[in-house]
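[job 4417] fold queue: 2 targets
>>> target A
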Amino acid sequence: MRRNVILFGTALLLSLGIGFAQEKDSAQAPEAAPPPVAADDAAKKNPVKPTPEGLAEAKRLYGYHCAMCHGKDGDGKGELAVSMDLKLHDWRDPSTIEKMSDGELFYIITNGRGKMVGGEGDRTKEQIRWNLVNLVHSFGKKSGT
């Protein structure tokens, strides 16, 4: 538990430092849109079926690594995103999810995107990252039913 708190604190401080540095830079130049995900990556299909166990594992990881920006329930209004004035997708809106393929979500979770520092590619197994794709999809299904 103590290790998780230390890792979270380190990630938070790192993110804040990067955010402040980027804020200074962004005041000088307009932010460019990130390049599109390559067609090969976007075309990938999720080989992992959603299961209660897989979603629980993804939700735990999401709580440690993602919720600070993307919000506890995927609303895009996590504490760090709000403090950095970031405009993130609301994954609870099914129309937002429909615009992105499984492959695009997997690529972003793996590599990061825009101000999203890094990604899960060097920290988590591929199956867990696909479970994170399933979790993101579940956010939209909750409000869409």
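>>> target B
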Amino acid sequence: MSGGVDSSTVAALLRREGHAIVGMTMQLWNQRRLPELAVEGATGRCCSIDDVYDARWVANQLDIPYYVVNFEDRFEQQVVRPFVDEYLAGRTPIPCTLCNNFVKFDQFLEMAEGVGAHRVATGHYARIAYDEASSRWQLLRAADSAKDQTYFLWGLTQDQLARTLFPLGHMRKPDVRSLARELDVPVAEKNDSQEICFVPNGDYAAFLDAYLREQGEAAPTTEGELVDTGGRVLARHSGVHHFTVGQRKGLGIAAGEPLYVIATDPATQRVTVGSNTDLLRGSFHVKEVNWISMAQPEAPVRAEVRIRNKHTPAPATVHALAGNRAEVHFDEPQRAVTPGQAAVFYCGEQVLGGGWIE
């Protein structure tokens, strides 16, 4: 229970259906850390202290057992530190996917079993189905395409899918709010959270600097050259980790046409910029691939591939490689294929699998 309308509605719905349920909230990040990043009056932050209070309020109203479980150490080891390391390595990580893979659907399931719960229900917008023909659990897109969260769930295993419920997957958000009002959920009108829980001001570079200072680590010196695609030096930049592929603002240079970050290279400390056309890529490699609705294929697979959360999945051919890797070839080149982001493979409503862009 995150304290938001979605997970609260799930709890109320399952309670009405007569299930024996236990409410649990994960304490992931000490909100008092890095006070220099605090934004007065900021709202929309995931997993805040107020969210814990709201979750307890809902549990009390539903008259169900409720616990706050401390996963701060696990979260820092599996989410925060990799987030920092990936950024410093010139990649753009997705902390929400790391959290799903290593905390919410891993450690949390173990914790649930400790209180006698054999399944976990969450407010994620996705669907799960069992396919008799393949004897596999399938991850399916949500009915509400605007809220679909399957891009962040591609790392779920067959065992995790078998023990997970997504009761809102077949509903649209306005209908969820209507149901919350019908069930007298006290947070029915609460706004959705948007920001990453440990980056309250949305400034990733400032978070990296503050976190490294807190850890007693010297921030790496990654100043270097800003160059065009031909290698011509245009300016100096303050640090590679301040840039991400596709970025347009904050380049610090004036040009006759819009320029975008095409690539970052921490080894040479160079940031390459170019035109929107230069951002297009026809193929790329993926690592740590998790095949969900099918076993790893021996032949190339046709799929629609999403390379970021708001990207419209594009037709492609996926070639599975040894070592849980894959090579993706788009039918038409796509914009801003970004190392560190995820590539998720779809076939209609099914999530075939996904992995990290190299």
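[job 4417] complete. Note on B: The mean pLDDT is 92.
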